[in-house]
From TrEMBL:
<protein>
    <recommendedName>
        <fullName>Acyltransferase</fullName>
        <ecNumber>2.3.1.-</ecNumber>
    </recommendedName>
</protein>
<keyword id="KW-0808">Transferase</keyword>
<feature type="region of interest" description="Disordered">
    <location>
        <begin position="1"/>
        <end position="27"/>
    </location>
</feature>
<comment type="pathway">
    <text>Glycerolipid metabolism; triacylglycerol biosynthesis.</text>
</comment>
<dbReference type="GO" id="GO:0019432">
    <property type="term" value="P:triglyceride biosynthetic process"/>
</dbReference>
<dbReference type="InterPro" id="IPR007130">
    <property type="entry name" value="DAGAT"/>
</dbReference>
<keyword id="KW-1133">Transmembrane helix</keyword>
<dbReference type="GO" id="GO:0006071">
    <property type="term" value="P:glycerol metabolic process"/>
</dbReference>
<keyword id="KW-0256">Endoplasmic reticulum</keyword>
<keyword id="KW-0012">Acyltransferase</keyword>
<feature type="transmembrane region" description="Helical">
    <location>
        <begin position="47"/>
        <end position="66"/>
    </location>
</feature>
<keyword id="KW-0812">Transmembrane</keyword>
<keyword id="KW-0444">Lipid biosynthesis</keyword>
<dbReference type="Pfam" id="PF03982">
    <property type="entry name" value="DAGAT"/>
</dbReference>
<keyword id="KW-0319">Glycerol metabolism</keyword>
<dbReference type="GO" id="GO:0004144">
    <property type="term" value="F:diacylglycerol O-acyltransferase activity"/>
</dbReference>
<dbReference type="GO" id="GO:0005789">
    <property type="term" value="C:endoplasmic reticulum membrane"/>
</dbReference>
Length: 442
């Protein structure tokens, strides 16, 4: 039985002033400019997305201003801070410094109501073990994953009591001074193997959430609330959202990220969090940045998962159950320039991804005062389903074989397909499907 807590106000660009429901994105609407009589709460929703987009850039500006254009003591302070960031900082890989007061601000309620985001619980998750949540699809920037697992706007901890889930992201997210602190306070962590192992070894209930497809899956992402309640649906589940380490390299922004509970998505971070005890979990967008290249609105979801098996080995090392998570609507938030596999544009994007560590999908959404082009996402409902867990034994490294990894990898893909097929008729084309594709760099 599916449970949903406190559905958000349903919004749509066509009836901006009425707040009525319509699954279409703004790209398909005839209206170009926003009407003047839009209610204040909808303006607040848009404002949250604008500030969310600008926050890392503001942190970069603040860093350079203090470094080159302020008083001498400001320069010394920022140099000391950056030295600490690059030489001594460990929190992106050790579970972050999540601050619940920050994650529960009404600000994030507006963030979730913008789309809106709905979280659906399909079963209970006992907090007597660690979990790895695999989030699909990546979309352009995994906004559904952020809303569900990096904030309490969907009340994850009340829905899954005892589960301490961390959202893991690329380490590059932690390279922005100050922005890295924001990420870790939000509960995000580095999506490295070390980070995964650390979290999963913290004890029962510690979990991670992974966006498995990565940024390359975003290249195939093309379109075809109030408190929603993760905390209420899963009380006791302490989830950590893991992101690229580069997010923690921006001064000040790193502080914001760590307060939100975000962590570095490295192997060290995963292992550290999962070893912290009952209920500690990690959230990984398993497709990663490569999957972002496949983020097109379509009835066919291309998921970069076929030869991505490292998360299974982490699960076997820590005895963490695997939980598939699928979000309908994630790929409909932006329109992306066509980039079929084998095209010149796709080849260029893949080359840039190899050099920089993350992909560069060419996309557009809507603007602040008009609906045809801009960096803000289109208003489109995101419905996230948390599937049934796959129990995984805890084994010594020498006992983990490639055959065993393949076995649980197949079980995970089958469970994800079942979750998708069970709920797809509620949110679009009954004939829609998911296709598992290889990561071409492996």
């Amino acid at each position: 039985m599916t449970t949903q807590v406190k559905p958000s106000l349903v919004t749509d660009e066509v009836n901006e002033s009425k707040g009525s429901s319509n699954p279409s994105t703004s790209a398909s609407n005839d209206r170009i400019f926003a009407p003047l009589n839009i209610p204040w709460y909808r303006r607040c929703q848009t404002l949250t997305l604008v500030i969310w987009w600008l926050s890392p850039w503001y942190c970069l500006y603040l860093t350079f201003h203090l470094l080159f254009f302020d008083r001498w003591y400001s320069t010394i302070c920022i140099l000391l801070y950056m030295a600490w960031m690059y030489l001594f900082r460990t929190f992106p890989k050790t579970g972050g410094h999540r601050q619940q007061w920050l994650r529960k601000l009404i600000w994030w309620e507006w963030f979730s109501d913008y789309f809106p985001i709905h979280l659906h619980k399909t079963c209970d998750l006992p907090p007597d073990r660690p979990y790895i949540f695999g989030y699909h699809p990546h979309g352009i920037i995994a906004l559904g994953a952020f809303g569900n697992f990096a904030t309490e706007a969907t009340g994850f901890e009340k829905l899954f009591p005892g589960i301490n889930a961390r959202f893991l992201v690329l380490n590059s997210n932690f390279q922005i001074p100050f922005y890295d602190l924001f990420l870790t306070m939000m509960g995000l962590c580095d999506a490295s193997k070390e980070s995964c192992n650390y979290i999963l070894k913290q004890g029962k209930g510690n979990s991670i959430v992974l966006v498995l497809g990565g940024s390359k899956e975003a290249l195939d992402a093309h379109p075809s609330s109030k408190y929603l309640g993760f905390e209420k649906l899963f009380p006791g589940i302490n989830a950590r959202f893991l992101v690229l380490n580069s997010n923690f390299q921006i001064p000040f922004y790193d502080l914001f990220l760590t307060m939100m509970g975000l962590c570095d998505a490295s192997k060290e971070s995963c292992n550290y969090i999962l070893k912290q005890g009952k209920g500690n979990s990690i959230v990984l967008v398993l497709g990663g940045s490569k999957e972002a290249l496949d983020a097109h609105p379509s009835s066919k979801y291309l998921l970069t998962l076929k030869n991505r098996k490292g998360f299974v080995k982490v699960a076997l090392t820590n005895g963490a159950s695997l939980v598939p998570v699928f979000s309908f609507g994630e790929n409909d938030l932006y329109d992306q320039v066509p980039n079929p596999r084998g095209s010149k544009l796709r080849s260029l994007q893949m080359s840039l991804q190899k050099m920089m560590g993350y992909s560069l999908p060419l996309f557009h959404g809507r603007g602040i005062f008009q609906y045809k082009i801009g960096l803000l996402p289109n208003r489109h409902p995101i419905n996230t389903y948390v599937g049934e867990p796959i129990e995984v034994p805890k084994l010594a490294p020498e006992l983990i074989t490639s055959q065993l990894i393949d076995e649980y990898h197949t079980k995970y893909m089958d469970a994800l397909t079942h979750l998708f097929d069970t709920h797809k008729a509620k949110h679009g084309d009954v004939n829609s499907s998911i296709v598992f594709v290889d990561d071409p760099s492996r």
